[in-house]
Amino acid sequence: IELATEEPKDGELSLVSGWGQTQNEEESRDLLRAVIVPIVDRNRCGEAYRVDFETLPESMICAGDWEEGGRDACYGDSGGPLVVDGKLAGIVSTGDGCAKPGAPGIYANVVTVREWIREVSGV
C-alpha cells in the first residue's frame, strides 16, 4: 500500500480494519472487519484528550464518529491500518475505550514517520 504524503483533513473519510473486538467486553475475532470513520480535527481531538496531552502531537491523528460513536478501532486492532484515498495515513494506536462519542481513536500519523518506514522497509 502506498504511504500518504499529506495529513488527512478534518471530515475526510478513512477506512480502519483489524481483527480486534467490536465492543469493550467482547473477545477478539478471527474475522477481519473494517469500518469507515471520519478524520477528526487535531484541535478538537486534543480537547477530548486534554488530560493525556497538552496538545495532540503532530505524530498523531484522530478518527472516529464524534457525535454518535459506534464506529472505531478497538482492543486487538493496534498496529492496523487507517487508509485514506487508498493510502496508508495512520496506524491504530490508542483511544479511550472503543467507539465512544466524543472520544475518537488515536493513530500514528504516517506522514511524520514516512521516511523512517521507507528506510526500514525499503518501500
Automatic annotation (TrEMBL):
SUPFAM superfamilies: Trypsin-like serine proteases
Superkingdom of source: Eukaryota
Chief location of this protein within or outside the cell: secreted
GO molecular function: serine-type endopeptidase activity
Domain Peptidase S1: 1-122
GO cellular component, one term: extracellular space
Keywords associated with the record: Disulfide bond, Hydrolase, Protease, Secreted, Serine protease
GO biological process: proteolysis
Subcellular location: Secreted
UniProt similarity note: Belongs to the peptidase S1 family. CLIP subfamily.
The protein, known as: Trypsin-7
Source organism per UniProt: Culex pipiens (House mosquito)
